[in-house]
Amino acid sequence: QVQLVESGGGLVQPGGSLRLSCAASGFTFSSYAMSWYRQAPGKERELVAAMRSAGGSTNYADSVKGRFTISRDNAKNTVYLQMNSLAPEDTAVYYCNARAKGVLKVYDYWGQGTQVTVSS
After folding, report:
1. Cα dist. 29→48, 74, 107 in Å?
2. Is the pLDDT of residue 86 over 90?
3. Which of these, 12, 61, 100, 108, could form a disulfide with 32 (CB 3.0-4.6 Å)?
4. Is residue 47 within 8 Å of residue 97, measured between CB atoms?
5. Is the separation of the CB atoms in 12 and 118 below 8 Å?
6. DSSP assignments along 15-80, one per residue
7. Starting from the edge strand earliest in sequence, which strands make up the sheet with 18-25, in order?
8. Strand 10-12 to strand 114-118: parallel, antiparallel, or no bridges (unpaired)?
C-alpha cells in the first residue's frame, strides 16, 4: 500500500523557519521524482519545489527561490522541504507528491497534506 505521510507543519511567525518531511512507503522511492505542492484557501494547488529521482536536479517556484530547499534521503525514503524566511503568503496546506512514468501509465501519489500557517 502506497503511503506518503507529511509532517512538520504548524504555526510560525513571519521570518521564521519550518522543515517539512514526507515519509514514503509502498513503492520504490528512489525511482520517483518527488515534489512539494501547496494550496492556499481559494487558490489552485501550485508546485513549490521538485527533485528528480536521481537527486541533484531541482526546480522551484519563483516565489520561493532562495528561501526554500528541497532534499531527499533515499535511504530513509523521505523528502524534505526546508522553508526559511517564511511570509504570510506562504500560508497553505503543503502536499507531498511522488511521480514516475511507467511504460503504459504515469504513477502519481499524494500525501494528505500538512498545514503551514505564517502569522504574527
Report:
1. 20, 7, 12
2. yes
3. 100
4. no
5. yes
6. T--EEEEEEEESS-GGGSEEEEEEE-TTS--EEEEEE-TTSS-EEE-TTTTTTEEEEEETTTTEEE
7. 3-7, 18-25, 78-83, 68-73
8. parallel
